[in-house]
């Protein structure tokens, strides 16, 4: 079964708007990672947040982690057409390195 | 840094044939993962290695699937015999070490079994 699930499944916004995606997972974790996948390509790592961190920033990306709710969110600010892609969260059940990916959010940014 | 290299990029084969997918991880990376991606099931972890040793193969769907890592710079995923339901994109990823480090993905092999 999936360790993580993202919502929404799909999101369509205008360029310049912010995009927020959420991820929920099932077990305790050491860290949570977010990845982007462009059509026909492999996944690209965006950001990693450790279980003892609550928020992390990288450029236009902001990730939060709430371990009590077993959830994370990814915020992309000032979105661009080039941000159009699928976004996945990945977690490994505590004590393992068996990274399992969620179902993904398909983001479409309209120019 | 050439990244993770997978070959072939595309593979079309007939049901019953043997298929071998290849992966060259990033030099110096100690962990290697094989994933399968389909529309219906999303990204599934098939197997992962650490220091060339298989750590968890519980995601390998059937005995028709096997994976090897004979050395730190090469891994194969073999399907014998192949079936139409094996059609998917197969990704290899490597990581510098177990723990808090990102996975680096190849561009995948798109397998079509007719």
Task: Report the strand count of chain A.
Answer: 11
Q: Terminal Cα separation of chain B, in Å?
A: 36 Å
Pick out the low-confidence regions of chain A. Answer: none
> What's the tally of helices of chain A?
0
Q: How many beta strands in the DSSP annotation of chain B? A: 11
Radius of gyration of chain B: 13 Å
Q: Shape of chain A, please? A: globular
Q: Oligomeric status of the shown chains?
A: heterodimer
Mean pLDDT across the residues of chain B is 95
**Derived structural class of chain B:** mainly beta
Order of helices and strands of chain B: EEEEEEEEEEE
Largest sheet of chain A: 6 strands, mixed
Overall mean confidence score, pLDDT of chain A:
93
Radius of gyration of chain A, whole Å: 13 Å
| Percent strand of chain B | over 45%
Beta-strand content bin of chain A: over 45%
Shape type of chain B:
globular
Question: Which parts of chain B are unreliable, with pLDDT below 50 for 5 consecutive residues or more?
Answer: none
What share of the residues of chain A lie within helices?
A: under 10%
Helix/sheet category of chain A: mainly beta
Largest protein-protein interface: A-B, 23 and 24 residues
Textual characterization of the structure:
The complex is a heterodimer of chains A (111) and B (114). Chain A is mostly beta strands and 111 residues long. Chain A has strands spanning 4-7, 10-14, 19-25, 29-37, 43-50, 55-58, 61-66, 71-76, 85-93, 100-101, 105-110. In chain A, strands 2, 4, 5, 9, 10 and 11 form a six-stranded mixed sheet that branches. Chain A has a five-stranded antiparallel sheet with strand order 1-3-8-7-6, with no helix packed on it. Chain A is globular, with a radius of gyration of 13 Å. The mean pLDDT of chain A is 93. Chain B is an all-beta fold. Chain A binds chain B through residues 2, 30-31, 33, 35, 41-45, 48, 50, 88, 90, 96-104, and chain B through 4, 31, 33, 35, 42-43, 45, 48, 50, 55-56, 91, 93, 98-108.
